[in-house]
Amino acid sequence: MPRFLSRLAVAGTAVALTAGLVTPSAAQAAAQPTNRVRSLTWVALGDSYTAGVIEATGAETEPRDGCARTTLSYPEVIRDDLRGLVDLRNVSCGGATVKDVYQTKGAPSGRPLPPFGADPDAPFAPVPPQIDAVPPSAGLITVGIGGNTLGFAEILKSCIELGATNLGRGTPCKDKFDASLPDRFNQLRGDFDQMLGALHAKAPSARLLAVGYPHLVPEDATRCTYGNLEQFATFTTGDLAWARTAILEPLNATIAQRTAARGDTFVDLYPSTAGHSVCDQDHWLDGVLTSIIPLHYALVHPNAKGQAHAATLVEDAVLN
To answer: Is residue 291 part of a domain?
Structure first.
């Protein structure tokens, strides 16, 4: 029996998911066979950390639209675990910003991700705002978003290039981007508030879970090897430490604060992924590359272990 289902059997369906998984007569439904339980309409929204994107998280799901949702991404892992208990609509998309969730069309690039090469099927057509997939009757919405609004891909690319130019010395990326971070975070806060408001207006009865980002950079950045393409390539040690304390940790804090302000639930991946960063031996995220031979791109994303861990925490949040 899948882990989630075994826990449901212990907790009791009516107690665990009364608001969405059972029919109005909770006591009767709990006593009836599983086929009398109504499936929960769940919409998964987010960026590449939700969609999966990289080859280390499996094959792409169909139909292929450039968003690169993969079979081992956490929504798909949970879909398999819950079997018939959820009706999942997974519209997460690689490269998505917060505005792409509630307002603008996304511009998916498929995989591998630029700047290392274009998907052979590119260009892809724009995809609708992700909120369009949310029905008013949705019982659960999960959303993992925010990094692209801060310009994570732009910063990653620049840090690698500047670190190479400076031969691993100093903090050239911090010097370039630090002054712009307050404005970037102000934009994130405003967009995140508008997104949450729009999602609640679209599905007033839905429970909303905002999923944070994992531990990309170890607490001690000197554990990362300069020039290692399976880690952060030519990021300088100083820039890695800056990225952790000035971008990644404030990003999670911002998501947590805005989520709490609306009375929603924050799923915090950060503490439990310490010791499993890109530079740790048992890493749950891959670096610039997953492997050199054969060549597989990752561009600093969770691998299958990281996605499986996210699935566990999201399931826990659904039950509590």
So the answer is: no
Closest residue by Cα to residue 192 from 154, 152, 151, 149: 149
**CATH number for the domain that contains residue 130:** 3.40.50.1110
Structure tokens at 225: 């090897």
For the segment 172-190, what is each residue's pLDDT rounded down to a tens digit? 999 999 999 999 999 999 9
| pTM of structure | 0.89
Collapse the DSSP code of 141 into the 3-class scheme (helix H, G, I; strand E, B; otherwise coil) and give the result: strand
Distance CA 233, CA 297 (A): 12
Segment 291-316, tens digit of pLDDT: 999 999 999 999 999 999 999 999 99
Q: Domain count of the chain?
A: 1
The neighbour count for residue 74, using CB atoms within 10 Å, is 32
Q: Does 5 map to a domain?
A: no
Half-sphere exposure of 190 (CA within 13 A, CB side): 6
Range of the domain at 199: 39-149+192-223+249-285+301-319
DSSP 39-64: PEEEEEEESHHHHB-SGGG-SBPSS-
Scanning the structure block, which residue is given the tokens 């002054």? 179
- Token pair of 213 as six digits: 């980002």
Name the token pair of 292.
């050199």
Residues 111, 68: contact at Cβ < 8 Å? Answer: yes
CB 96 within 8 A of CB 145: yes
